[in-house]
Amino acid sequence: MVQWWLDFAIKRREKKLNDAFGSLQAGDVFSARGRRVLLTGAAGHIGSVIAKVFALNGAEMFLTDINQAGLDEVCAECAAAGAKARAHAADLRSTDAMKALAQETLAFFDNRVDALIHCGGLTWSYPMLHEDDEAFDRHFQTSVRSFWNLARALLPSMKAAGGGSITVIASTHGHRADGACALYAASKAALLSMTGTLAGEFGADGIRVNSVSPGWILGYKPKYYWDRALDLIKPEFRAEAAEKVAGHQDELAKLIQTLPRVGRPEDVAMACLYLTSDAARFVTGADIVLDGGKTRVQFESRAGIAQMRRRYEAEDATHQYLHNLPLEYWLAGELPPWHHKRHK
To answer: Is 85:61 a contact under the CB 8 Å cutoff?
Structure first.
């Protein structure tokens, strides 16, 4: 009799689990179909691709960024993919703007937001002695405080709906900083800490909170900290220089990780799609390190030392290319001062 009851209970439990999952077809389980998603940083080189991937996979999108023109373009592309989409420009640094954004999102989605993907924020910081007095507040307000304000505004509606998903785009620098980027690394570490804590706080409400930590992800222009150099080049020569620098950066990216390919925004978008989908229904408090093995390179080994040497050579190649540009390419008619210091 006892064994019969045990068998009955196990079969009943298995039936409930299968019913909850609904389908074992990967196209269904990994789909974002019907998900109502708020995405920050939607006009950025990673955020714009996340928006398109979710739109193509059936999500309804509410997009925000401070870049109105870029935001409108991404929204139009989502609509062209057949998605219900709206754009709302907002400054992440403003608490009032974040509260208004949350209310606009809830109104657009009939008071039910299924997912928040926080991709907005600053993409790099400079060495401490090269930052201005407002840099600290700028980084933490844009990346961390904005997430705090949005999560606080949207969590009650997720609780009322019986669950939801929150995904934060962090960085490998939040785990281990690489380079003189203290503010960027600290803000990403704060997001990682907050993500793990919120996962514990709201798990009982059916709300999953996770993060993705990209390594070096190349967009369709040179990596962010070369923008400052390219901005000093005359407009008529800028596209040519950007293409050359991007090529150097492709090679450099392969030398700071273990996989011999370049990370792209689509890689980040697919990780977000997984975390938002039913496939990740048992995943919370997790961080997907998406870095091609960057944090696993063993530079103290013989192979690692050789790889590090090639990395420095690739970095120098970029600097040397810019250093060797004719003086008439530069807006000021001379090399920037930091190039003189590096190559004197």
So the answer is: yes
Six token digits for residue 102: 């949350």
Sorted by where each starts, the structural domains of the chain and their CATH numbers stand as 31-217+263-293 (3.40.50.720), 223-258+298-344 (no CATH)
Task: Give the global pTM.
Answer: 0.82
Of 70, 59, 66, give the one whose Cα is nearest residue 37. Answer: 59
H-type alpha helices, 81-139: 95-108, 135-139
Facing residues of 40 across strands? Answer: 64, 118
Name residue 210's beta-bridge partners: 167
Instruction: Report residue 137 as tokens.
Output: 């507040």
Contact 50, 117 (CB under 8 A): yes
Which residue, among 245, 292, 214, 243, has the nearest Cα to 46 in the 3D structure? 214
| 307: amino acid identity, one letter | Q
Q: Between 139 and 222, whose confidence is greater?
A: 139
Q: Are 176 and 197 in contact (CB under 8 A)?
A: no
- Segment (H or E) for 209: strand 207-214
Reported as a single tens digit per residue, the pLDDT across 2-47 is: 565 555 555 554 544 444 456 677 888 899 999 999 999 999 999 9
CB neighbourhood size of 43 (10 A): 24
Rounded to 5 degrees, φ, ψ at 237 are -110, -5
Cα–Cα dist 306/301, whole Å: 9
